[in-house]
Queue: 2 jobs
Job 1
Amino acid sequence: MTIGKTTSKKRILVFLIFIASAILGTAFQNCSDTKFTDMAYIELGSSSIQKFTTKEETELKIQPKTFSSISRKKGTFVITRQPTHGTITSFDTKTGQFTYLPALKFFGDDSFQYVEREDGVKDPHEVPILIEVVMVAQAPVIITDTVGFEMNTVNVIFRIDVRDYHDPDPQLYLSADPKVKVMPTKNGVIKQLSNGQFSYSPSHNFRGSDFYEFIAKNSFGDISKKKVILTVGNPFRDLEPSMAIRGVGCVSCHLSTGSKLISDFGYGDKYFFGKQAYNAGLEPFAAPFSFYNDHGGGGFLSSILKEILVPNVDLPFSLVKYGASGSGTFSAAQAAATTLPQYMNAVRGSATVTVKSEVFIGAPSPATISSRTGLGDSPFVYLKNQDSSPELSGLINKGSYFEASSLTCDGDLTINGTLFLKKLELKTNDGCRIYVTGPIFVNDNITYVQITAGPTNNTNLQLVSGRWINLGIGTSHCENNVDYPITTPSWYKNAKAGSELTPFSHRMLNYTIVSRDMQQDNVQLKAIEDSVVGFQDASCRTSINGESPREVHFERLLLNAPRVDSRYIGQFNGVIIAEVALMSLSNFSFLFDPVFSRVSILPLLQPSDYLVVK
């Protein structure tokens, strides 16, 4: 430090006091992310430099030391030079306190300058402020979560996207050794072709989810890793349907979905588009034959539907006479239609009609479930997703059926018989798939617990029944005019609705006439349901927060059976694949759950068992 010859004794005294104050370390800062890096001052004439530090993109709010605070005089402060790489967002002209914000992504040295004037002092003080902005180390981020592949493909090229805050070209590797260009996965082989570009060959006939952990590194040496899911043969990858059902008679009027609907209207069977009724001289657009037709001819105009996928097939009979007779709301376009896509375009409302060359919708029979899974005569078989997956727990053998309320399942569980899920809490990582030869009964909502916390939540439940999936359809009910408002939809609350019928009887007696796979003995199904202790109709559920007892929301749920019935109302996020689905449609909204784009879908079955769309 050098003091010029012209410096007065008074100036020297003030400056010594200034230095003493600095040595004492009296700081005026109030930001935990900032600090004084050097409390010495270099005085050149009447100027003094102060230096501070902050982190990248972190606000610095600080009170610098001032001459007026030492001399106990009033001072005024004026900025004479703005910073180059940031902004002074606030500046107190009476104290010199300032707030500095670095520019986005800037790190390094910045500076600005102000002038301090003391009352009674002739010469102003020029004060340069130096600010060191320290870079915050940020590892590169691998963006890609899932990549999809078809079965039995070879060297399919794909990209893995990576972003880095500072480095425009972060590098991706298969191994900590950059020279490694080929690595095996659990179910295939992956090769690196260039930075970010790879190829993958799944093992022969493999279908399900494979994984690989990629490594990203930026030019600063920061490293990150991410396990990317490689889905093989996922039937939902390019479809994302909320429902794939054959019988759309009820859906056409009452469906509300923001995702895709897939239907073949029963194509390939005698009742396709009401053909069975037409051939018998009956009305194909009337119940019950309209299960596989457009009920009432009203189309999807009253539905909330985003997109419907149908096969490119001819209609089984001419519709001209229905237009001439003014049947229902039949239009000229409907009457002129000769193919299923033409008819759907006439009744689609605001939905998009997508034509496919092939659509198959089905469900495995009990025999198929047993043979595909190797169940045999065993009561159940459990296969874990990975060696590290937990063992199965919480499945209770009740003798005539199996029950679960708190279930740990991370894999494929096959059950010989009947399953009752009673307000299920499912503990899993990558999902539980349950294949049941008999019916499945579901009471109340389903909640999920991720066993091992991670960046991606893949918890999900996939239920397959060879007979029936029943969500709250009881053999008795709790609805009456006293405690169930007349505005609440119900078939059972008064005589006009048929109070002599239970929900089970109404569904099973009136809606199985033309169904391909539900000709089973209803007496036997009722006996099975009656044997399930504690199973309730949805209307008997305890009301929560004043909502309808029937209001239950489902998510991360896949249902596949010849028939799916529900008396719950609310939101359904998942996928339903069935011959017939009666889901309280006017009070239920459906969305595809994206978890099913990145997890294994029923790996013990073949897509030809439940859904093929080409």
Note: Residues 1-46, 483-499 have pLDDT under 50 and may be disordered.
Job 2
Amino acid sequence: MARNTNYEVAHDLQKLAVIAVFFNPVRYSSRYNLYRRFEEHMSQSGVFLFTVECVFESAPLFGLQQQTYEVTQSNNPHHLQLVAPSILWMKENLINISVKHLPAHIEYIAWIDTDIEFDHLNWPHLVIEELQRYPIVQLFEMANFLGPKGKNEILRRDYSFVYSIKHNKPIDSRQYKEWYPHPGYAWAMRRTEFNSIGGLFEFAVLGSGDLHLAYALLNRIRETFPKNLHEDYQRLAIAWSERVAELAQEGHNVGYVPINIWHHWHGSKNDRGYVERWSILERHQFSPSKDLERNTETGVIGLVSRRNIGKLQMSVRMIALERDIVIYFQSRKEDSESNVVKPIKSIEPKPGPVNPKPTAAGSGSHFRINKQTLPKFSSHSNRPTYVVIPSSGYSHINDPESCWVDCTCCERHDHHHDDDCPCCTHYGGGHGWEDHHEKPECFDEFEHEQGCHDHNEEDEFYDAYSGDCDQGNTPGGNVTDDYGDGDHQGDTNDDGDGPGSFY
């Protein structure tokens, strides 16, 4: 297909800023290497690159390395270094924060995944030209998903979501095998319009922010999350999407850049768990307004700290939620070079109906019944150690003494998940509850029946988690202030079963 990659006039690139987000809880070397490649590519493109890097203070609690900044320097004005109290998918939150730190003269902002590369260096001029026509722009026409061998191994090609809108291609999960409109990789907006919608939806703590944005353009965000997700998440997402849809005129006021991109390999697509990760938020009934708090000084969000929770039961659930998020990040295996997908020679778009009637709200069309099971620990001894580390600044790890956080799930009852209890972790070596605990029972309303657990006195267990409340954190619902009432990266399983496989 012939593409016009020329631009009418040379634009002032000083008005454009590219935001790169870097967070790496598992310390994948591929993320570091891809960022360095991307940094050089942006330099060659002549654009202003603003990099925000976030480290996670809770990493040692889950057996991960102590976090240090890998790609940014504190004395570089083009870098922003932040600390998050909990391990979450931080992309959209960090982008929103970064926009507030950009110089006042910046009129256009782009956020681009650091694993992609444009096939022409004139792309910044094309971006500005398109942003002068439309307030929201996706920055490519077609994406080449590469294998471990690089540009000599193209595993699949996908057209962009906005290209699909503009060319009346099907945007329907039932037809993704024939036509997949990619929702991610690279977007840009006019700064004023970005602010008018309240920034990006930042409560997708396991990813899918790009998917939410793309479908919000068409006022179809209800198709992007499962029906069993907490109603609070759904309500906030819908309220935000209504502003996006109004700005985008339900797809009529958006554009794309007529240029192709390369997506560089960082692990098999089969390890991304784009569908399965939703089960974590469903299982824990994640509620953004109840389960998140925002640091009022930095804007960084995190799970509600122990002292602000006020309930042992809630504290246990927060630890279990973060534990499952850590397991998800580990399961992505982004340093793996193993690939089971055969490279393709070419791909021709197949005809399909013009954007079909949207699926009914809550249909769960993106979420198949036959889901893969998220990786779980199968024995006591191979679980990560949860140890509270003395530190300052965040209430859930600033206790004066390190203390073990142990599950007391009774091994004698018929509990259906003795080896995957949500109460944290078991002692190694096969120790049972009777070795450590005696007294009152707790009640976990999400996973257990009353009487399954025996814990020490609540105040002792609670003290193990809590500390002085971080004055910079605002508990609970205040995270939703910007919303009023209110991976991402694409690929597919071999069988192409369902859109969630791509996100």
Note: The first strand starts at residue 16 and ends at 23.
